Amino acid sequence: MLYKRSSQLFAEAEKVIPGGVNSPVRAFKAVGGTPIFVKSAKGAYLYDEDGNRLIDYINSWGPMILGHAYEPVVQAVIEKAKLGTSFGMPTELETQIAALAVAMVPNIDKIRFVNSGTEACMSAVRLARGFTKKDKIIKFAGCYHGHSDSFLIQAGSGAITFGSPNSPGVTAGTAKDTLLAKYNDLENVATLIEANKNEIAAIIVEPVAGNMGCIPPNKGFLEGLRQLCTDNGILLIFDEVMTGFRLAAGGVQELLNISADIVCFGKVIGGGLPVGAFAAREEIMNYLAPLGPVYQAGTLSGNPLAMAAGLAMLQALDNDRAIFKRLADKTAYLAAGIDKVLKANNVTFTINTIGSMISVHFDAASVVDFKTAANGDNETFKKFFHGLLQEGIYIAPSAYETWFITDALTYEDLDFTIRAIDKVSKTF
Ligand SMILES: *Cc1c(COP(=O)(O)O)cnc(C)c1O
Fold first, then answer.
1. Distance 219 CA to ligand 1 centre (A)
2. Pocket around ligand 1 at a 6 A CB cut-off
3. pLDDT digits (tens, 9 = 90+) for 10-33
4. Relative to the CA of 7, which of 29, 92, 250, 359 has its CA 20 to 30 Å away?
């Protein structure tokens, strides 16, 4: 496949946009080469500026769970746009999507909409601090909660890919209030709590980690966090920006039957438009302005186009609860196929999956936290990535990312992908 026009467009972009991209993970820094420029997408496929068709396993990094340009979402946006694109005044639509989200997700009474996952997580932490009147938070190495200052301490995703897990520009004052723990290590969390008695407002966690590859929680880990939080007056924040409305209608809280105190959303909840949200029981949410003292706001929050897209997406999922099983079946089929061909070609690897999330690690040991995720062989990953690109398959250009399975992918697409992986892994 040729990527001539993409290369030219990237050269133009680099002149006026830092690194040619508006979000670092889009650059091909970790794998070499230049990013693919997209012209359009439909269902399971991307169509690029050179006329290539690619099977898409990124899906806008998660939102497009029903595939690209899903008709009811597109129609909802078009119809709303004709009626005006932003008012800065309440609309009925906001109540409709809020009511549906509250009905689908366990343990939440009220929800507030923002414009990104980053905003959702930073607002959730502010709310937790205001509510508990404590300053410190615990986050886990390799978990990503957006690019707000408090979270850029051993952050996952792009931050690891670019070797700057602790970003310059975050002040020492901010960094000292973020305590770092090891994912899947309860004892480590208990020790931190003991050492910072009555100072911790919240523990924020990806209840299934997805930004250091896909790492499901060990049995008992989330239950243990819940108990530690309850025992110590700490709020448990589930960052379900990736997992919400994906692993189940009610996210990981429903899937694993664990109650968080505050839940953050993004990605799927916006149907591909810029939306985030955070939600909790009434007592906590009423602490927000204008009812309570914790300030949080947004000119474009609850934007009608974004809410129309999100509502159409959530309605589609709510009306078709069988989708989550269908996606998990496809993921299991793909994982089994990849497992078979990589073994046949004597490749060293580990595959992690849960629901519609999957990651392939070029490492023999099991991948359970940031340290083990970082052990993978990046040279093999580069060959894997570029080999698949040549075969017309697009995975994330970083070994630290999860692939997302969508409802639009067919078993033919999965078979094509498995055959391509067989071919590519013979060249390692
Ligand atoms: C993507 C992501 C975020 C950040 O969301 P943005 O919309 O990119 O700001 C936060 N948390 C998790 C778990 C994510 O996967």
1. 24
2. 116-118, 121, 144-146, 206, 210-211, 239, 241-242, 266, 276
3. 999 999 999 999 999 999 999 999
4. 359
